[in-house]
Write a structure and sequence with these properties.
alpha/beta; seven-stranded mixed beta sheet; two-stranded antiparallel ribbon; globular; binds NADP nicotinamide-adenine-dinucleotide phosphate
Length: 486
């Protein structure tokens, strides 16, 4: 390989440090778009591999040391970090910051918790540097060929960085799947919620598969055919498409359907849990995402499942399904309704996060930049953008006319699916929890009135009345007289 010493006469437009799969693919994507890309990795072997294997894809400026890497960047410098999340990211930020000058931009494109991004941004701002936490979705394939990109940070830094990121992002109808999300941690926040929605989407698809497999006794390939069919309608999306692909795949070793040879214990890397923890802190009910995250935990609770299997009574019905075609149609409608609720809940979380942290996030634009490149890319995201175009202050996505019309078509089927599952003993946590949420949010009156009364009884937490202003408390242990508290 050629010498790693940078040529003083020529400088790179942008740099990427961290040449594992994501960083190298992002660097190649930038180079393929005509940018001069400085590249660096802690261990030099990975940098050499990029040059040896892909050096002819564009103009790369490889460096062995962080000093040379920084020196090879055009000012104001832009350096993207794509290393292991957590401590390694902090270490690389420190190393870079020591070598950079005022106005330079450090980008963390890894998966970081938005509160870490806020902390890092504040620390680097003190030193006159821009720190841009950026969500990147689409896995390794997306990083190479066009991901969905969610950058936070200052508008000023976006002026320098944004055009390059927009260039390399996925595009739909000529529009980039990248926009400035908002200040400091906004980009990582939105990426986190994107992943939470992804959890709900994947789980509810799996629940539909489970019902077809168990209630109808269909084999994997036949269920795959159903998903192929669904991918031609409202449900058209990357996740439905890959589900069909997985279900049609046959295991080389056994000749069995691939899905049947996989251990039924799902992993989670943390972003689903972050979405739920953050939602709890913000007081946003993301029930679909939460149940999807817990469903993975249930599947991974091996000791609990062993203790329960064959011991816990089912006392369930075993109702035969007379009309399988109608049942499959019901599942499709239930899936669409549960999906609409999960997305509405995710957008609620983004809206509440924006309010809490002072981010000016355009919700319609978020749906727009998820239309391609990312895992939840789907046809129906246009409908979300249209809903926020109609009313940017929409307090609940589900209350938009498109959603009310679509859900109305799905409700009877959705109820039938949840009722059948409950009576016959099939777990459908996302189908059921999203329906419960739907019925709660549209209720004239909720049993929260009783909860408030209980709270006032044991903790003097007070209550408000339906017939006037004020805060009240009843002397429960004395004469039970009401007194005004404000
Ligand atoms: P990774 O396996 O998460 O990390 C490996 C890279 O981190 C290597 O370049 C490694 O350098 C470097 N590294 C580890 N510790 C370091 C330290 N203390 N100092 C400097 N460098 C260090 O790589 P990845 O899968 O490409 O992911 C990169 C980032 O993208 C992560 O934050 C990940 O969460 C995020 N992400 C990944 C995906 C995906 O599909 N994989 C999707 C979206 C986002 P050495 O080679 O020297 O060990």
């Amino acid at each position: 390989m050629a010498s790693f010493a940078p040529s003083p006469a020529d400088v790179a437009d942008i740099g990427v440090t961290g040449m594992a799969v994501m960083g190298s693919n992002l660097a190649r994507n930038l180079a393929r778009h005509g940018y001069k890309v400085a590249i660096h990795n802690r261990s030099v072997g990975k940098t050499e591999k990029v040059i040896d294997s892909y050096g002819d894809e564009g103009q790369f400026f490889p460096s062995e040391t962080m000093e040379d890497f920084v020196a090879s960047l055009q000012k104001p410098r832009v350096a993207i970090i794509m290393v292991k999340a957590g401590g390694p990211t902090d270490a690389v930020i420190d190393e870079l910051a020591d070598l950079m000058d005022e106005g330079d931009i450090i980008v963390d494109a890894g998966n970081a918790l938005f509160t870490d991004t806020r902390r890092r941004e504040a620390a680097l701002r003190e030193r006159g540097l821009h720190f841009v936490g950026t969500g990147v979705s689409g896995g390794e394939e997306g990083a190479l060929n066009g991901p969905s990109i969610m950058p936070g940070g200052t508008p000023e830094s976006y002026k320098r960085l944004g055009p390059m990121l927009e260039d390399i992002s996925a595009h739909v109808d000529g529009e980039p799947c990248c926009t400035h999300v908002g200040e400091d941690g906004a980009g990582h926040f939105v990426k986190m919620v994107h992943n939470g929605i992804e959890y709900a989407d994947m789980q509810v698809i799996s629940e539909a598969y489970d019902m077809m497999s168990k209630a109808l006794g269909m084999d994997a390939a036949a269920i795959g055919d159903v998903f192929d069919q669904w991918n031609k309608g409202d449900l058209e999306s990357f996740l439905i498409e890959i589900t069909a692909g997985v279900l049609h795949h046959v295991d080389d070793r056994t000749g069995k359907p691939f899905v049947d040879i996989i251990l039924d214990q799902a992993a989670q890397k943390g972003t689903g849990a972050w979405t739920v923890q953050t939602a709890l802190d913000l007081g946003v009910p993301v029930t679909g995402i939460a149940e999807a995250t817990f469903a993975r935990s249930v599947s991974g609770g091996v000791a609990q499942r062993e203790a329960a299997r064959g011991v816990l009574p089912a006392e369930a019905e075993t109702q035969a399904i007379d009309d399988p075609e109608r049942f499959i149609d019901d599942l499709q409608k239930a899936l669409y309704a549960a999906k609409l609720v999960s997305y509405s809940q995710g957008f609620d979380e983004i809206a509440k996060g924006a309010e809490e942290y002072g981010w000016n996030i355009n919700l319609g634009d978020m749906a727009k930049i998820w239309r391609d490149g990312c895992i939840i890319r789907a046809k129906f995201l246009n409908r979300i953008t249209e809903a926020y175009d109609r009313n940017p202050e929409l307090p609940l996505l589900l209350a938009d006319e498109y959603f009310t019309t679509e859900i109305a078509k799905c409700i009877p089927a959705w109820r039938r699916v949840v009722a059948y599952a409950a009576e016959n003993g099939y777990p459908v946590p996302v189908f059921a929890s999203t329906l419960s949420y739907y019925d709660a949010v549209r209720s004239e009156r909720l049993p929260a009135a009783l909860v408030q009364a209980q709270r006032d009884f044991f903790g003097a937490h007070t209550y408000q009345r339906v017939d006037g202003e004020g805060t009240f408390h009843v002397e429960w242990s004395e004469d039970r007289r009401e007194s005004r508290q404000d």
